[in-house]
UniProtKB/TrEMBL annotation:
Species of provenance: Carboxylicivirga marina
Domain of life: Bacteria
Lineage: Bacteria, Pseudomonadati, Bacteroidota, Bacteroidia, Marinilabiliales
Name this protein carries in UniProt: Lipocalin-like domain-containing protein
Length: 129
């Protein structure tokens, strides 16, 4: 009976570890924002002259991310779990993550400010400084 418990525990640990690694492999690369939906469409943030700002996210295997928003870019850390993505100090619920699409929703105390973002994988790159 002890052996069975140990085998099940090891199998479970390996399964969860491989899922985390698989998720991280899927997110590695550059993503371009193609859509932003606000819970309250009356609130417009990140819109300049009614034109959306280009947003690129470049995830690296080492747990770092480079973010480009319009002309500005910055580096941060990210953490990925099965259903949650943390970028710096912001948390997002993962609604979809596969090899070419990423959909995430902001986790916010202010539901009217929470946005859902849709990204597609891209060949674009963010210049390293």
């Amino acid at each position: 009976m002890k052996r069975l418990i140990i085998v099940v525990a090891i199998f479970t640990a390996i399964t969860f570890a491989s899922c985390d690694h698989q998720e991280k492999n899927q997110i590695t690369g550059t993503w371009e924002r193609v859509e932003e939906k606000r819970a309250d469409p009356q609130i417009q943030i990140g819109i300049s002259n009614n034109e959306p700002i280009e947003v690129l996210l470049m995830f690296k295997e080492d747990g770092t991310i480079k973010v480009k928003q319009g002309p500005q870019s910055y580096d941060a850390q990210y953490q990925l779990s099965l259903k949650e993505l943390t970028l710096g100090n912001r948390k997002y619920e993962l609604l979809k993550l596969d090899s070419d699409s990423l959909i995430m929703k902001e986790i916010s105390d202010w539901e009217s400010l929470a946005s859902t973002y849709k990204y597609f994988k891209t060949e674009k790159r963010i210049k390293e400084e």
